[in-house]
């Protein structure tokens, strides 16, 4: 196991009605709050009115309309509001898109220069506004980490950024706030959690405890996702998935490992060019990536994945085990209503080459769990047709 440093600073308020604690929790940060959110769902479910009532003693400004795969334009609008109203703190109400956008706004408030340059060139983030979150969908884990992803559709770029400075100070995780999440987005969120975990699991460093954590998180998501798909208001199911989301990508699983991600780098190009839902893109890519890299070098790990997660019985031929496990994973994704062919989403092979080139270059896939070239990624895309 490699050396590592692990430090979490987010105050987690988990459970029913934990929003009520925000009034006192936010006071130390100042009086002027920018509340960020996406569409109208938080208003339909009553969360918006509840929060405005809780924040009645604060001076609250709003940035609404934050998109899935959040755009740099929303970051720019948010930074302008922060400067105009001398905002003290950002309260992000939503899922990963809203929280990621809010992190970029928090850092952008003090950045001098083009905000896309801050993201694209990963400029050092020396200062940022404090952030609190109220999570409404379990997926990205952005509520308890210092990373984010922003999209620039004009340049077909979807890029990550990060800093401890944008780690949320407070996150409210009330499973009831996810009851109204549609089945499609519930499914995509669960795939996102599974893939985050797999990015740490498929690693060449021997770290048994981290591997056991990974397996437990994935098994939890696999067990409870069908339950909440059938009964969206199953509190325990929503709670388990929400908590799994937070631990899948807060640094715990990758601690002591090489941390060389591959699947997200490939999917980010799909999102950048086709604006596909992130979790759906991951569901398409993940099983095909694993099939493509299956070899004498990786078969033991993939066979263990098949046995520990998908219940494949141990046999002497590890390749049989591995392929059965990947079959079961694909079957699981399909059972959630996800279509795993690019053609089903109007995506042809016209951009495979440019997407593959950028995935390798930007994602540094030559240093991944298994080194990949542009030609390798093109073959993976072809497997997804």
Task: Describe what this molecule looks like in 3D.
Helices cover 48% and strands 11% of the residues. The protein is of the alpha/beta class and 385 residues long. The protein has a six-stranded parallel sheet. A two-stranded antiparallel ribbon has the order 6-7. Helix 10 (263-274) crosses helix 11.
For this entry, give a set of tags.
alpha/beta, 2 domains, Rossmann fold, 385 residues, six-stranded parallel sheet, Dehydroquinate synthase-like, alpha domain, 8 strands
Helix amount, in percent? 40-55%
The helix/strand order is EHEHHEHEHHEEEEHHHHHHHHH
Number of strands: 8
Strand order of the largest sheet: 1-8-5-4-2-3
Sum up the overall morphology in one term. Answer: globular
Number of domains: 2
At the first level of CATH, what is the class of the largest domain?
Mainly Alpha
Low-pLDDT sequence parts: none
Structural category is: alpha/beta
CATH superfamily descriptor of the largest domain: Dehydroquinate synthase-like - alpha domain
The DSSP helix count reads 15
Supply the CATH architecture of the largest domain.
Up-down Bundle
Fill in the CATH topology of the largest domain.
Dehydroquinate synthase-like, alpha domain
What percentage of amino acids are in beta strands? 5-15%
Write the layout of secondary structure elements.
Layout: E1 11-14, H1 22-26, E2 32-36, H2 41-44, H3 47-54, E3 59-63, H4 72-85, E4 89-94, H5 96-108, H6 115-120, E5 131-135, E6 147-152, E7 157-162, E8 170-173, H7 183-201, H8 208-230, H9 235-248, H10 263-274, H11 278-293, H12 299-310, H13 318-335, H14 352-363, H15 374-383
Parallel strand pairs: 1-8, 2-3, 2-4, 4-5, 5-8
Antiparallel strand pairs: 6-7
């Amino acid at each position: 196991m490699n050396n590592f440093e692990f430090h979490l600073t987010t105050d987690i308020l988990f459970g029913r009605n934990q929003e009520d604690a925000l009034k006192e929790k936010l006071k130390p940060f100042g009086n002027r709050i920018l509340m960020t959110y996406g569409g109208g769902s938080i208003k339909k479910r009553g969360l918006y009115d509840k929060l405005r009532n809780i924040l009645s003693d604060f001076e609250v400004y709003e940035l609404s309309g934050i998109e899935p795969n959040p755009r740099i334009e929303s970051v720019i609008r948010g930074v302008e509001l922060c400067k105009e109203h001398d905002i003290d703190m950002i309260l992000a109400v939503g899922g990963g898109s809203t929280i990621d956008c809010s992190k970029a706004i928090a850092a952008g408030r003090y950045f001098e220069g083009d905000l896309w340059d801050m993201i694209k060139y990963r400029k050092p983030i020396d200062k940022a506004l404090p952030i609190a979150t109220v999570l409404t969908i379990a997926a990205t884990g952005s509520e308890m980490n210092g990373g984010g992803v922003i999209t620039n559709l004009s340049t077909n770029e979807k890029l990550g950024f990060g800093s401890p400075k944008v780690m949320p100070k407070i996150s409210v995780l009330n499973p009831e706030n996810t009851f109204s999440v549609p089945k499609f987005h519930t499914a995509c969120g669960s795939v996102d959690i599974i893939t985050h975990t797999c990015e740490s699991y498929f690693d060449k460093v021997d770290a048994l405890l981290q591997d056991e954590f990974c397996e437990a998180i994935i098994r939890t998501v696999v067990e409870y996702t069908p339950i909440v798909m059938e009964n969206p208001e199953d509190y325990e199911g929503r709670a388990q998935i929400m908590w799994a989301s937070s631990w899948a990508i807060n640094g715990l699983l990758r601690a002591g490992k090489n941390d060389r991600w591959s699947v997200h780098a490939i999917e980010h190009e799909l999102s950048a060019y086709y604006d596909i839902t992130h979790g759906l893109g991951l569901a398409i890519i993940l099983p095909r990536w694993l099939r493509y890299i299956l070899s004498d070098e990786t078969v033991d790990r993939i066979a263990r994945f098949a046995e520990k997660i998908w219940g494949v019985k141990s046999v002497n031929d590890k390749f049989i085990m591995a392929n059965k496990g990947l079959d079961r994973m694909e079957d699981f994704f399909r059972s959630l209503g996800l279509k795993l062919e690019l053609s089903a989403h109007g995506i042809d092979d016209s951009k495979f080459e440019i997407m593959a080139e950028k995935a390798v270059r930007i994602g540094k896939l030559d240093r991944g769990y298994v080194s990949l070239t542009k030609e390798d990624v093109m073959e993976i895309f072809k497997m997804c047709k």
